[in-house]
Every structure is written in C-alpha cells, then in structure tokens.
C-alpha cells in the first residue's frame, strides 16, 4: 500500500475510533460526565504528520531555439563541414538572411505529450492556536506550518524544419543548393514544493472530551519551477539528395548538433485559500489527539526564466496548484498545563 493511501486509511480509522469512543462515553453515568466537565478554552501548541496529494497544472508556453547558433556550433566543431559564410536562402533582391529561430508552442504542437502532473508525498510540521468555548460551541484561530517534498513534472516534444543556402567561393549559390535543418525540441517543466502554511478560523461543537469542527482561511506554499530543454538539429545538404536517398539519413545527411538548456529555475510563494474539517479527543486535561482533512487551492502564477544561453530560450510558464491533505495531530493544552 502506498504511504499516502495508508495515512488516509489510518486517518479514517482514527476518526471512526473517535466516534465509537464518543458513543461509549455517551453511555457512561451522567453524573460522572457532569462531575468532570471539559473546557476547550485556552492556548495550545502541537505537531502533525500526514499525507499530501498535489495537483500541478502547467499552462501553455513557447520555447525558442536559435538555429543560427546551432549551425555556428556545428560548423566550428566540424572545421567548416558546411563551406562558406553562414547565409540563408536568397531573397528576391539577391540579399541573404540567417537561419533565424524556431518557436515551439506547447501544448498545441502535434508532437506534444502534455498533461497535468500529480504527486503524493508525506508532510509534517506543527500548529499553534487558541480556542474559546461558549456552552457546546467552540471558536478559535490556528496557524500551522508543514514541510513536504511534493513535485509534478510534464514532458513535451516539438518538431520544426528550416532551410538555408550558403556562400561557396564568394558567390551566392542557387536555392537548389540548400541546407535543411530539422530540429526536435524536448521540453520538461517540473514544479517542486518544500513547505505549506496557513492561518485559519475554526468553529466547532464540543461534547465532553470530543470536539468536531470546521476550519477555513488563507494558505501559502512555495513553488519552484524548473525548465529543461534539449534541442537536436540534423543538417542535410539538399543538393546531395537523390530520389533514392532518405532525406533523414541518406546521402544528404551532414551531421547533428545537440544542445541542452539545463535546469533554468524560477520560484515564488503562491497564496490561496484552504478549508476542511476535523475531530479532536482530549486524552486528559493537558493533551488532545485528532485527525484533520483540508483542501487548499493556491490559484495560478506565471514563472519567468532568465537565460544566458545563445541557443535555447525557455518560455514563461503558468502553474496552477491545488492540494488535499490528511493529518494526524496532537496538541498540548498550554492553558490547562499551567492552569487557567
């Protein structure tokens, strides 16, 4: 069984145990219950551990590959295997331009493999808060912080073809003597989360040593987005291609240039809302045990990547994030511990 599924199952078991225990206490002597009333009023501090399910949604983005730069790198490493200065196809007025750049739009290209990234992970941390009881009703405020190691990843692939002529012996050649550049770009977007935090109101109903409550408020989480791209370009000499030759590996193939843009990162803190419910059981007048479920929605944020490379430029990427968590909690009742 996966760790997170185990925690969810265990949490449900704990909740059921709390309810059964509540039913058992309900059958106790009324005078015994009245003689030892429990008051939830006061400050508390505690810890928690549980499971987190994270759903990352990656928005549309455009990556760019500088085919000119790849051509120059390839020609330098092969000692000028493509002869003459780097020029593109001849225009109508006899001038020439560079290869230029290829743009890859994800996820709209036909070669894209695109979906949302999800992850299940542990989380653990602590909470601090204050309750005030009015009869059976309890209101309070709580802040918490958890560390985690959640992540989600998406992969995409795109293809583009460009053509160029070159200057051989000082004269611009005919367009039939073209260089064909076939570029495949593999792009990865990975999002990582190291911590979550929240500040919430709580409203509940107390019956003896049991408290059942709902909670809602603001939530924060850190998100780091990593962009990694690999551009692989095959160069072909169109003048060497024959009807019997395979354009992707026959007589016209000159060589390949591959460049990788390693781990360009962008990070920020996303803020959203969180809400859920829980139950607590007072073991004694100084400590409680409980279980809590919360859903959190951190909205979306666009991440920008600075690039010093001359070949691949990662596009800005929007990330949506929402999570579900179940935690087992314990609290030390500070006010009870030191007396009211």
Describe the structure.
- The protein has 340 residues and is mainly beta.
- The protein has one domain: Beta Barrel (Porin), CATH 2.40.160.20.
- Helix content is 13%, strand content 60%.
- The protein has an eight-stranded antiparallel barrel. Strands 3-2-12 form a three-stranded antiparallel β-sheet.
- A hairpin with a 2-residue loop joins strand 4 (117-134) and strand 5.
- The two termini are 45 Å apart.
- 34% of the residues are buried.
Tags for this model:
340 residues, mainly beta, Porin, eight-stranded antiparallel beta barrel, three-stranded antiparallel sheet
Please state roughly what percent of the residues sit in beta strands, choosing from under 5%, 5-15%, 15-25%, 25-35%, 35-45% or over 45%: over 45%
CATH architecture verdict: Beta Barrel
Distance between the termini: 45 Å
At the first level of CATH, the class is Mainly Beta
Count of all domains = 1
Roughly what percent helix?
10-25%
Question: Which topology does CATH recognise?
Answer: Porin
Number of strands: 13
Average pLDDT over all residues:
79
State the strand order across the main sheet.
1-4-5-8-9-10-11-13
What pattern of helices and strands is seen along the backbone?
HHEEHEEEEEEEEEEEH
Low-confidence stretches: 1-35, 84-96, 167-176, 241-250
């Amino acid at each position: 069984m996966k760790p997170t599924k185990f925690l969810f199952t265990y949490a449900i078991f704990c909740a059921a145990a709390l309810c059964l225990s509540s039913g058992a206490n309900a059958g106790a002597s009324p005078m015994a219950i009245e003689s030892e009333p429990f008051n939830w009023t006061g400050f508390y501090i505690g810890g928690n551990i549980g499971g987190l399910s994270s759903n990352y949604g990656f928005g549309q983005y455009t990556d760019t590959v500088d085919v000119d730069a790849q051509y120059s790198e390839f020609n330098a490493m092969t000692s000028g295997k493509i002869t003459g200065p780097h020029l593109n196809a001849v225009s109508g007025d006899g001038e020439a331009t560079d290869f230029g750049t290829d743009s890859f739009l994800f996820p709209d290209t036909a070669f894209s493999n695109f979906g949302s990234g999800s992850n299940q992970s542990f989380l653990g941390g602590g909470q601090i808060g204050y309750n005030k009881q009015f009869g059976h009703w309890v209101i309070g405020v709580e802040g918490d912080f958890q560390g985690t190691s959640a992540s989600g990843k998406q992969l995409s692939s795109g293809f583009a073809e460009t053509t160029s002529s070159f200057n051989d012996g000082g004269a611009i050649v005919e367009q039939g003597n073209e260089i064909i550049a076939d570029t495949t770009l593999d792009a990865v977007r990975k999002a990582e989360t190291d911590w979550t935090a929240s500040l919430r109101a709580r409203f509940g109903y107390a019956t003896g040593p049991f408290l059942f409550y709902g909670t809602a408020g603001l939530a924060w989480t850190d998100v780091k987005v990593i962009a990694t791209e690999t551009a692989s370009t095959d160069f072909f000499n169109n003048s060497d291609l024959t009807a019997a030759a395979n354009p992707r590996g026959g007589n016209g193939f000159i060589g390949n240039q591959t460049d990788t843009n390693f781990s360009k990162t962008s990070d920020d803190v996303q803020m959203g809302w969180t809400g859920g419910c829980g139950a607590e059981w007072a073991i004694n007048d100084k400590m409680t045990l409980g279980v809590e479920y919360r859903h959190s929605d951190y909205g979306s944020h666009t991440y920008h990547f600075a690039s010093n490379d001359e070949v691949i430029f990662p596009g800005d990427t929007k990330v949506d994030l929402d999570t579900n968590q179940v935690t087992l909690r314990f609290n030390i009742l500070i006010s009870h511990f030191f007396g009211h």
